[in-house]
Amino acid sequence: MYQSDKIKMQLQCPMPKLDFDVITLGHGSGGILTNKLLDSGVFNILSNPILDERHDGAFINLESKTAFSTDSFLVSPIFFPGGNIGELAINGTVNDLAMCGAIPKHLSLSFIIEEGLKMSEFWEILVSIKFACEKSGVQIVTGDTKVVEKGKGDKIFINTSGIGSIHPKANINAKNINIGDKIILSGNIASHGMAIMSVREGLEFESQIQSDTINLNHTIINLIEKFGSDIHLVTDPTRGGVATVLNEIAKQINLGIEIFQKDFPIEQQVASACELLGLDPLYVANEGLFLSFVSENIAENLLQELQNDENGINAKIIGSVVKNHPKQVVLESNIGGKRVVSMLPGEQLPRIC
């Protein structure tokens, strides 16, 4: 469904005829070429009343408690199975806002483009940005475009910042986590990281590993609407994976976390790819998952609700918060042994998002 919707969007947004095929330094000069690039691309495809003002910034009314987030994206390659850097940038910031219990509304969008980028590639990225914005319900309201010399970048880097109103029922804070809280993982781990690595390493499987990049805001807001303050923390395990995020939380709350290997959802070919490359899937980046720490008494109901959502079909309860071994994450293996799962010591997969 999601992939077919993206293809439909691309057919609805054909690239206009232009007098240039690649982006040059002149397109970042602020002059005629810059205006041609922006008029034929950014302003045309992302048009909305606020962006169309073309001011130095955006005028926005903030009527309630607001969340703000920013992120930069330099994934390599910029096109990968299941997505590209454009939709990754939108989904990444939308999801960061959602993890705060916010309803994402407005985003800024800035490009740093290396001269020589094909206009057809830039257009495909813009179409994916438009699709991701429409699916998540946000608007691009301001931004910036710069061009750097050949060899001074890597095709394109993107920065997005976003704001959103906190849902009135949300109370997302690690300080709310209690002993006995259950930890729920929304879906299969390591898909994004291994989709990137399979391209880099030229790995072939029976079916292509797809990135899990997706917006999660509608899913999370639905859960907050139903379960409110019984959801103590929501966070997305991107760089560093599930293991690193759990370690950060354990240290922050000064309590222990116990997780169970048998309960971790993972696609078989993703697990095989990790084994082939000598990678632990617990440390591999994800882009369409979230971890939630919830009151024990609502955990099963929340899990059932999540499994009825398209973004949580494979959700599982993977562990709980305990008094023992404070500040540590302990994994019980499939054969019953236990080991401490430490934080990622270095960069396992560079340029992953």
Number of helices: 9
Mean pLDDT: 94
> Cα distance, first to last residue?
24 Å
Return Rg in Å.
21 Å
Helix content: 25-40%
Quaternary structure annotation: single chain
Number of discrete domains: 2
Organism: Polaribacter marinus
Domain PurM-like N-terminal: 56-165
Family: Belongs to the HypE family.
InterPro entries: HypE (IPR011854), PurM-like_C_dom (IPR010918), PurM-like_C_sf (IPR036676), PurM-like_N (IPR016188), PurM-like_N_sf (IPR036921)
Describe the protein.
The chain has 353 residues and is of the alpha+beta class. It folds into 2 domains: 2-166, 60s Ribosomal Protein L30, Chain: A (2-Layer Sandwich); 174-338, Alpha-Beta Complex (Phosphoribosyl-aminoimidazole Synthetase, Chain A, domain 2), CATH 3.90.650.10. The protein is built from 9 helices and 13 strands. It has helices at residues 2-12, 32-45, 85-99, 119-136, 191-201, 217-227, 241-253, 268-277, 299-307, and strands spanning 66-73, 79-80, 83-84, 102-114, 139-148, 156-166, 182-185, 231-235, 256-260, 291-294, 316-322, 329-332, 338-341. The chain has a 7-stranded mixed β-sheet with strand order 8-10-7-11-9-12-13. Strand 4, helix 4 and strand 5 (139-148) form a beta-alpha-beta unit. The longest helix is centred in the middle third of the chain and has 18 residues, at 119-136. It is globular, with a radius of gyration of 21 Å. The protein starts with a helix and ends in a 12-residue tail after the last strand. Belongs to the HypE family. Pfam families: AIRS (PF00586), AIRS_C (PF02769). Residues 56-165 form the PurM-like N-terminal domain. One of its GO terms (biological process) is protein maturation. InterPro entries: HypE, PurM-like_C_dom, PurM-like_C_sf, PurM-like_N, PurM-like_N_sf.
